[in-house]
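REQUEST ID: PR-0412
SUBMITTED BY: lab tech R.K.
PRIORITY: routine
TASK: structure prediction, single protein chain
INPUT:
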Amino acid sequence: MPEQYHLNLPADVVAWFDGELWKECSETGFGQPMEPAQLLDSNSSALWGGQMLPDTLPILDNGCGDALCLRFNSNGTVSEVVRWLHEGGDWTPFGTSLCEALLLDAAITLMEEPPGGMEDRVEDIGYADWALKWLEGVSQQSSIRQTLSKEHALPVMGLLEANVAEAAVRRMLCQHCCTSGLQRFCHASGGNLLATKLGVPWPVFSQWLFDTALIPKEMETKLAKATGMSFDDLSRQDWGGAVAQAERVAALRTDLSWPFAVLAAR
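STATUS: complete
OUTPUT:
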């Protein structure tokens, strides 16, 4: 593979392929590794020419068309891992290395489980233990594992404390700050159904999901009654926290649009 694509693969990616980790699926979001034969075949359906970034190569997918991709510098070395979505071709950072991306995928999987649905720790999920052992072997210290073992409000906070996948984690924390109770309710019960029940056109209602300050005063009681939640709980968003995360990422890199979109909105 390195010869075909003129790549200088990092040691963790070489170990991933040589150790045949790609033969093992996991329960994480991106738990279906690409086989080397797929990546070497220019006609493979795994390679979305013209839609994936031209400097990327997929390494794991989620079974629905989305993929984690290695992104390369001009000299063939890996610069980062990105999450690529097949609908629209959108991409976001997912870590500076394969190991970081595997740890983030495990943390997200843990966060997406319903309360009480999974009692595992991040290091017990998917490929996370392999990634931690690799990082520990390189750095000769176990501080990352010790940091992840602490109690955190969100699993990804442990990654941030351990300085893993910072830009990706801060994006998730920004989203968490912006997510209102109304958005969570609609995700669980259906937003279109609620909009229809209230007699509000979907294009109007959908804007309320992202900025509850747009909800008219006369709709507050109706929303509370229709959802069984207080309007305070429905409308609460932490824009201060979102801005703080956006500012940190904007200082790290200028090629991402979302930090500036958040800063412009507030």
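NOTES: The CA atoms of residues 64 and 86 lie 9 Å apart.
REVIEWED BY: pending
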